[in-house]
TrEMBL record:
Protein name per its UniProtKB record: Uncharacterized protein
GO biological process, one term: trehalose biosynthetic process
InterPro entries attached to this UniProt entry: Glyco_trans_20
Gene Ontology MF terms: alpha,alpha-trehalose-phosphate synthase (UDP-forming) activity
Pfam families assigned: Glyco_transf_20
Length: 172
């Protein structure tokens, strides 16, 4: 009988909270906030974000299905809420990851077709990688950040979001 050994260790990680907080005040980040508000028609909308590698461990299809269910159950939020999924390509040479990309794109299309109102679409995807100023601007703009990984070891997105909330009103 082969014996397998499991090893558990403590690997503390964090983010530079002060730097991320200061970045929100930079002119280029503020300009990017304005650009995104205009180009994505975000003015007056509640904004939810997720920033992920396009990886099966991140639960992206499950998150999208939860957004669809939210809109099914509370249609009064149509036209008032936008979900932005910023994706970073991952392992694009592996066929299962390319299939995940296709599945996510198809699911976004289906949900957007089902719930669109005029020019408004509930889900906006930003296939990445997005520049650091864009990610900082998204974290500043967002009212809500969704981190819903299925299996993840060291995810810093939640910490980055909290550090970027200058008004302390963000929901995680």
């Amino acid at each position: 009988m082969d014996e397998k050994q499991t090893l558990v260790r403590h690997f503390p990680i964090s983010v530079d909270f002060e730097q991320l907080s200061q970045d929100t005040q930079k002119g280029e980040v503020k300009r990017e906030v304005k650009r995104l508000k205009h180009s994505l028609a975000l003015e007056g909308k509640s904004i939810a974000i997720s920033i992920d590698r396009l990886d099966y461990t991140k639960g992206i299809p499950q998150r999208l299905m939860a957004i669809e269910r939210f809109l099914d159950n509370w249609p009064e939020y149509k036209g008032k809420t936008v979900f932005i999924e910023a994706q970073v390509p991952s392992r694009t040479q592996i066929s299962s990851y390319r299939k995940l990309r296709e599945d996510v794109d198809a699911l976004v299309t289906k949900i957007n077709q089902k719930h669109a109102l005029g020019d408004w679409k509930p889900i906006i995807t930003l296939p990445g990688p997005s520049p650091p100023n864009t990610l900082a601007a998204l974290r500043c703009l967002a009212d809500l950040c969704i981190v819903s990984s299925l299996h993840d070891g060291m995810n810093l997105v939640a910490k980055e979001f909290v550090a970027s909330q200058s008004d302390n009103d963000g929901i995680l």
